[in-house]
Design goal:
CATH architecture of the domain at 96-112 and 229-420: 3-Layer(aba) Sandwich
Bound molecules: pyridoxal-5'-phosphate
Structural class: alpha/beta
Strand content: 15-25%
Radius of gyration: 21 Å
Largest sheet: 6 strands, mixed
Distance between the termini: 33 Å
Number of strands: 15
Shape: globular
CATH class of the domain at 96-112 and 229-420: Alpha Beta
Number of helices: 18
CATH topology of the domain at 96-112 and 229-420: Rossmann fold
Helix content: 40-55%
Length: 458
């Protein structure tokens, strides 16, 4: 399997070449040159693989269609090492819970940080360790976080050979639970840096360090952001598992409703559907930051400025632009890389928006690709959490509530909708654990010095 860039760069790369990379050299996102097709026979076989051998074996089947530069036995072992009942809380790994008629909740949040990002990040940790040791290289992951991503990355990389994590977060601005989650890690390869500033200051420092190409090369700086193809691929697996758990036979079609921010999670659903998984609709649920809902309703993609990016009670979906969305637009435009480049490079830079509402291809978003969308507000979240508890005795978190609200609103009669649970409510008392964190001023030079001091091998 070879991978291309959505912006038309002529290079074709293999899985392990793009594993440790972020963007393609031309600023595009990587996609496979084609989506492997899963026929009825394979679906039948995968259903019994899941039932008979478990989630890790299914993960191996899916991954092996996209990864041909890791020996099969090694890939299988990496999947088995990642998806264990020990780490994910149950033998099913992603079990379904029935809500009301026609509505299921798919549990994706029983990993170490209680959010679905563990599903992909835990695999990434093992893949990184494997590939780095094969190359005899080291990697220093530098990131900025205000919550889920940073902590999922730290829990995935803790104790891994050849990897260090330097995670910047805004000092005193994360929830006490998330601070406790990250700062209580005592592993020598995990470095928490609390920056005296806001999240944007953290992100600016990461950009400044990464733009210093000499420093970047010398200290082997890398990232694990949501555009990483391997993360997306890991997420494709649970759409297959959710489908098999929810249905009796491969004649049935079901829909998924996905709480969305950067379009990573639901983009994996798009890939699964393109492979031939019988998905009827992919329902995108946003909060007040409704960049994606606006697109699927009108065809207008409009990046928000910081003044109209809202801080909501489902903060992991508070985005101003959807960083994975380019992958879907590339497919929608029949993989026209020139046009994709024009929209995402030129139009967004010059106008902060593009409009496809009048394009004859736009109706395919709903038609051929099965997308629908809805949006939810703070009041919706509260009433959805309350009613779900009253009706089913199930406590859901605010992000998942955005999904349940939209699914209830858009579900058609007779339709089965699986809502992806993206996080669990977090209220365990872990705030008193000992903490390991360095507080620093918002100063790129100081951060660079800290990195240099803690990379003896560089
Ligand atoms: C990251 C995250 C989301 C959004 O997922 P995307 O892949 O960015 O669309 C939703 N809910 C939770 C809890 C998250 O951590």
């Amino acid at each position: 399997m070879l991978y291309l860039s959505t912006r038309g760069h002529p290079d074709r790369k293999r899985f392990c070449e793009i594993l440790l990379e972020g963007l393609a050299p031309d600023g595009g996102l990587y996609l496979p040159v084609n989506y492997p097709q899963v026929d009825q026979g394979t679906l039948e076989r995968w259903r019994s693989v899941l039932v008979g051998q478990g989630y890790a074996a299914l993960a191996f089947e899916v991954l092996s269609l996209y990864v041909d530069d890791i020996p099969r036995d090694d890939l299988r072992r990496l999947c088995e090492k990642t998806y264990t009942a020990d780490v994910f809380g149950s033998a099913e790994i992603v079990p379904l819970k029935a809500l009301e008629e026609g509505l299921f909740l798919q549990a994706l949040s029983n990993g170490p940080t209680l959010a679905f990002k563990d599903m992909a990040m835990q695999l990434l940790g093992n893949l990184f360790e494997y590939e780095l040791s094969r190359r005899g290289e080291q990697l220093n992951i530098l990131g900025a976080t205000s919550g889920d991503t940073g902590s999922a990355a730290e829990y995935a990389m803790r104790g891994k050979q050849g990897v260090r994590v330097f995670m910047l977060s805004p000092h005193g601005r994360m929830s006490p639970f998330q601070q406790a989650q990250m700062f209580s890690l005592m592993d020598q390869n995990i470095h928490n840096i609390a920056v005296e500033g806001v999240f944007d200051d953290c992100q600016d420092i990461v950009k400044a360090v990464s733009n210093d190409l000499d420093f970047k090369r010398r200290y082997k700086i890398g990232t694990v952001n949501s555009i990483n193809w391997a993360r997306l691929l890991a997420q494709v697996v649970y759409y297959f598992a959710g489908y098999f758990y929810a249905t009796q036979s491969n004649e049935e079609k079901i829909s998924f409703c996905v709480p969305s921010g950067n379009f990573g999670n639901v983009c994996a659903g798009h890939v699964a559907r393109q492979m031939g998984l019988p998905i009827d609709r992919l329902i995108v649920a946003t909060n007040e930051n409704d960049v994606l809902d606006e697109f699927f309703r009108t065809g207008t993609y409009r990046v928000r400025g910081s003044a109209d990016t809202y801080e909501t009670s489902s903060p992991s979906m508070d985005i101003s632009k959807a960083s994975n969305f380019e992958r879907f637009v590339f497919d929608l435009l029949e993989r026209d890389a020139k046009r994709t480049k024009q929209l995402f490079e030129e139009a967004l830079r010059l106008h902060g928006r593009f409009e496809l509402g009048d394009d004859p291809l736009f109706p395919r978003a709903a038609g051929r690709y099965g997308f629908s969308s809805g949006r939810s507000s703070h009041a919706d979240r509260l009433s959805t959490i309350r009613s779900t508890f009253e009706r089913q005795g199930v406590v859901i978190d605010t992000h998942t509530a955005d999904g349940v609200k939209v699914a209830r609103e858009l579900r058609r009669s007779g339709e089965t909708v699986v809502v992806l649970e993206t996080a669990l409510p977090k209220f365990e008392g872990i705030e008193n654990r000992p903490k390991r964190v360095r507080v620093m001023s918002a100063d790129t030079v100081a951060v660079k010095r800290y990195i240099a001091e803690h990379c003896p091998a560089a």
